[in-house]
Write a structure and sequence with these properties.
Distance between the termini: 29 Å
Number of strands: 12
CATH class: Alpha Beta
Number of domains: 1
Helix content: 25-40%
Number of helices: 10
Oligomer: single chain
CATH topology: TIM Barrel
Order of helices and strands: EEEHEHEEEHEHEHEHEHHEHH
Strand content: 15-25%
Bound molecules: NADP nicotinamide-adenine-dinucleotide phosphate
Strand order of the largest sheet: 3-4-5-8-9-10-11-12
Length: about 290
């Protein structure tokens, strides 16, 4: 049987940042509701370590996960010898009750960058995504200028606090506005088999050699549920999660996935998924899943 390259190979952005197309999303390593520490912190560190040892060079995190909890787990899993890109996000903080609050003034963004430096234990942040949107569902782009917050991050990049900038929960106009201020290496939006709509944006980013990072590739807090997906998985003798990840990786060369898991066994399944090659008729069938 034909197999794809391990981890789906890699994608190199116009800025020369090379990411393995299968990364790892650390959000759900925090406690329930992405709040507080996990029940088994040692296992959480082992999951991140297992991802790195398997060749994943792209870990997605944020200081507002926990808060601070997943950044500190990622920090503790890394060694100085690891050649890993840690991608963090700014633009939100957590309230005392766990609420997710927008925090995008230049002063707030600087505080968040400084906090990320501390909790990740580094002098420079590799990639910082400005999380912009929200809207009724909390995770969709909301049109409007991002010049002030992105300009503030560009300033911090010029100061050497940040190496690369990205965006999250944005539309095409916001990407264009940001690209005119400073180079964007990745756009991280909600995208999976059952939640689509960014096709034109993905193609445009591919032309600009910007990575499109799909968050919630497995459905996030609401696992993907589809009879078509289950049927395909049964036919191929693969887990539905593996098929969902393989489908994403076959969509575009600039597609990067960051599946999250708190279990080493699930991590290994998710990494192996990248080598699953879906035949054209299977892809066509999956394309009909409501998205
Ligand atoms: N930019 C943004 O606004 C934004 C928003 C949300 C998330 N994110 C990023 O996206 C990453 C991924 O999101 P996510 O972790 O919430 O959702 P996800 O990757 O879509 O799904 C994770 C869920 O699937 C389960 N799972 C993973 N692998 C599995 C497998 N092989 N078999 C069965 N179940 C499996 C996990 O449970 P187990 O722990 O039991 O495996 C977990 O409940 C996050 O870590 C975060 O870094 C970004």
């Amino acid at each position: 049987m034909t197999t794809a390259p391990a981890l789906g190979g890699s994608f190199t952005t116009a800025q020369g940042l090379t990411l393995t197309r299968t990364g790892y999303g650390a959000m759900q390593l925090a406690g329930p509701g992405v709040w507080g520490p996990p029940a088994d912190r040692d296992e959480a560190v082992r999951v991140v370590r297992a991802a790195i040892d398997a060749g994943v060079n792209h870990i997605d995190t944020a200081d507002f996960y926990g808060p601070h909890v997943t950044n500190e787990i990622v920090r503790d899993a890394l060694t100085a010898a690891d050649d890993v890109h840690v991608v963090t996000k700014v633009g939100s903080v957590r309230g005392d009750d766990g609420a997710w609050l927008h925090a995008r003034s230049p002063e707030q963004l600087r505080e968040q960058v400084v906090s990320n430096l501390r909790t990740l234990g580094t002098d420079v942040l590799d990639v910082v995504n400005l999380r912009v949107g929200g809207g009724a569902d909390g995770h969709s782009p909301v049109p409007g200028s991002l010049a002030e917050p992105f300009g503030a991050l560009a300033q911090m990049r010029d100061e050497g606090l940040v190496r690369h900038l990205g965006l999250s929960v944005v539309d095409a106009d916001q990407v264009a506005e940001a690209q005119a201020i400073a180079p964007v290496v990745t756009v991280q939006n909600w995208y999976n088999l059952a939640h689509r709509g960014d096709e034109a944006l993905i193609a445009s980013l591919a032309e600009q050699r910007v990575a499109y990072t799909a968050f919630w590739p497995l459905g996030g807090f609401s696992p993907l549920q589809s009879g078509t997906l289950d049927a395909v998985a049964g036919r191929l003798g693969a887990a539905p999660q593996a098929v969902a990840l393989a489908w994403l990786l076959q969509r575009s060369p600039n597609m990067v996935v960051i599946p999250g898991t708190s279990k080493v066994a699930h991590l290994r399944e998710n990494l192996a998924a990248a080598q699953l090659v879906l035949p054209d008729d299977v892809v066509a069938g999956l394309d009909t899943v409501a998205g």
